[in-house]
Design goal:
Blueprint (H helix, E strand, L loop, with lengths): L7 H8 L3 H10 L4 H9 L1 H4 L2
């Protein structure tokens, strides 16, 4: 399965985040950027 190309400006707009926060999450590595940002906004939904 090939990785999906994600355009950070569009993703930022969709999630209501800054491009900087998405780039920082991406650099943190280990998990998908979307999951990292989603958890930061809705931690109770991904707990457990």
């Amino acid at each position: 399965m090939e990785p999906e190309i994600i355009h950070i400006p569009e993703l930022a707009k969709l999630l209501g985040r800054t491009e900087s926060s998405i780039r920082s999450a991406r650099q943190a590595g280990g998990r998908s950027v979307v999951a990292t940002i989603f958890q930061a906004r809705q931690p109770h939904l991904l707990a457990g």
